[in-house]
Amino acid sequence: MKTAIAKLAVSAATYHIDKPYTYLIPDEMSDKIEPGMRVTVPFGRGNRKCEAFVLATGEADRENELKAIEYILDEEPVLEMWQLKLAMWIGARFFCTVYEAARAMLPVGMWYKDGKRNVGDKTELFAQLDIPGDEALTIAGTIKKRAPGKAAILRLMAEIGGAWVSEITYFTGVGKQSVTRLAGDGYIKLIRKEVFRRPEINASKNGKISALNSEQQSVLNGLIKQYSSGATAALLYGITGSGKTSVYIKLIEHVLSSGRDAIVLVPEISLTPQLMSIFAANFGDNIAVLHSMLGIGERYDEWKRIKRGDVHVVVGTRSAVFAPVKNLGLIILDEEQEATYKSESSPRYHAREVAKYRCAHSGAMLLMGSATPSVESMYNALCGKYTLYRLTQRFNSASLPEVMTVDMKEELRSGNGGDISRRLAREIAMNIQNGRQTILFLNRRGANSLVTCKSCGYTFTCDRCSVSLTYHRANGRMMCHYCGYSRPAEDTCPQCGSTLNYLGSGTQKVEEELHELFPEATVIRMDADTVSAAKSHEKILQEFKNKKADILLGTQMVTKGLDFENVTLVGVLSADRSLYVNDYRARERTFSMITQVVGRAGRGNKPGRALIQTFTPDNPVISLAARQDYDAFYSDEIILRQAMHMPPFSTLFTVTAFGITEADVMRACARVKAAMAGYLSGEDIKILGPAPALVTKINNRFRYRITVLGADTKKLRDTISHVVKVASRDKTCRGVAVYADLDPVDL
């Protein structure tokens, strides 16, 4: 006897037991359930209720007793077949469950908690005149003395026919009850309609792109020709200020004219407002925005507009790569080298890899753009995997900023122990005097990153993580930037009672120093502490754009994408701070950050200059960044990568074990390495470790990892997946969790 069944991705299934689970479809649900819907099912020995995605439906012989689906959560599929296939691909490639991958494609407002959706549809009352307009005016005339409010409503309705009740009450000054009474009298009809919660987007007055210069037009012609050839990938390498955004917009216009849709990804939320204002000037309401700083309702409604096909251009951060556009023709990955495109929690996908998949399966074009492309992308372009386009001049024919370097060792020798060198102070003062603006970059928030005793050397560290606490002067507390632990700041050493040293400056301390040096100047600080509230980053950037501040001080949020014509000076503080991190990408990231932030200067018709403060001015990365010489940097870096057998010459995987007891974690990691070495014996694979993670303990859990370098083959991925699943079931590894990652950001 055949029975209706469904294959489900179940939320309670962890990675080591993840598979499509078969459930019985009850007769009363047989004509309602479709792939892409969510249902609730009993799972495990305790039959606990959990959520699941329907992957497929069908029939089977009823040989075994199957558990049945209990409830249907969606009236129609929330995911289409291409999204389910994408979820299965993400699960296999990025070592996560299919459910986790599928859930990541839905806005938070669609998620369920305790059986209820996080947010529902928003509706408002719409009033429609239900009698002829002449009759409405006649009635208004007869009742204007005894019911002036109702008469005013009828006169308005006779003129416009229909309006939202909130608008009627606003323009007439009459309460909602008068509208309700008119509906009861049969004069108007009240209809509940859905309304979209939309983020406010202010179109840039000067954002309309008209003509391109000859170099931009040449690049655009090449891209259009390539787009017409089908699913392809291109890298647009353009110096800072070369007008890559203008090329993007013209290419999108061509894609829209061919009847297809476009997605534009940016790495930082801080870039979204400025970019959105330019896109709004060019595409009007034909755009939607997706990023994590939107309200839950706003993000849900933007997702609905995209899914319905109401808009054809989507702009957003990493997760916007999943936007359910109807007919994908183009994905643009702006600042493609940025690490923020990689998710650090499951599913640990990279937006660039997902974009490649989507473009390949929809015949769309992938365009990656940057002034400092990742070493891997440039290598692929030079090898012919991507088509390479170059923009070598600034769009307004302006020259690149003049770059100066200050040796901070000399500053110390001359008695200046502050964070602002004398040369930078003079340049800032000159800018303020001339009515120009300055951007200062320091990639560390807080006031001081280290608080230690002058006598005994005691250091304030996090009780739960293997890091020192950062002093925040704004709230007088010492805080851990990993787990959130904090404690009140102390005046003396708790161990010996001596005075304390506050070392390692952050943005808060530099802000205070700026106020002391330039008491008449207005300083705006932009870091994770000041942009935590919704849309606060928009407010900060708008104030700076409107010239309400002389200096913008910030972390990496200010290094890229910002375009302010009045900014003529950029200062890079502690340029070499990120250079000596134990990460093979440290040189690349440092070069990119310095080059990007230097490029914020002189983007208008005023010449720009930049000043780099460093303790190692002769370091080749610093000197090449000062010269804005990406080609020379790439030539040096690719030789080092090949010598180290690092990407792009191999693919890097990590297997991380974490748990409360350090010895157990190390033991589990050793067993993982031994198992992997056995499976991959004879293969051209390097297995390194076990080694502690860069931050060994986070939130009372120790982390050790194995690093695997080799060709990205199915056998290698399957082996890593198998070893992780076996380790999760290994009784000797009890209390230790194990997960794998492809090309991790956090080493």
What is the fold's blueprint, element by element?
Elements: E1 2-10, E2 21-24, E3 38-43, E4 48-61, E5 71-72, H1 81-93, H2 98-103, E6 112-113, E7 116-117, E8 123-129, H3 133-143, H4 148-160, E9 162-164, H5 165-172, H6 176-184, E10 188-194, H7 214-227, E11 232-238, H8 244-257, E12 261-265, H9 272-283, E13 287-290, H10 296-308, E14 313-316, E15 328-334, H11 351-362, E16 365-370, H12 375-382, E17 387-391, E18 402-407, H13 408-413, H14 422-433, E19 437-441, E20 448-453, E21 470-472, E22 477-479, E23 486-488, E24 500-505, H15 507-517, E25 523-526, H16 536-545, E26 551-554, E27 567-572, H17 586-598, E28 609-614, H18 620-627, H19 630-644, E29 651-659, H20 662-679, E30 686-698, E31 701-710, H21 714-729, E32 736-742
Parallel strand pairs: 11-16, 11-17, 12-14, 12-15, 13-14, 15-16, 18-28, 19-26, 19-27, 25-26, 27-28
Antiparallel strand pairs: 1-2, 1-4, 3-4, 3-5, 6-7, 8-9, 8-10, 20-24, 21-22, 22-23, 29-31, 29-32, 30-31
Helix pairs in contact: 3-4, 7-8, 17-18, 20-21
Please describe what this structure looks like.
This protein has 747 residues and is of the alpha/beta class. It has 21 helices and 32 strands. A seven-stranded parallel sheet has the order 13-14-12-15-16-11-17, sandwiched between helices. It has a six-stranded parallel sheet with strand order 18-28-27-19-26-25, with helices on both faces. Strands 2-1-4-3-5 form a five-stranded antiparallel sheet. The model has no long low-confidence stretch (mean pLDDT 91).
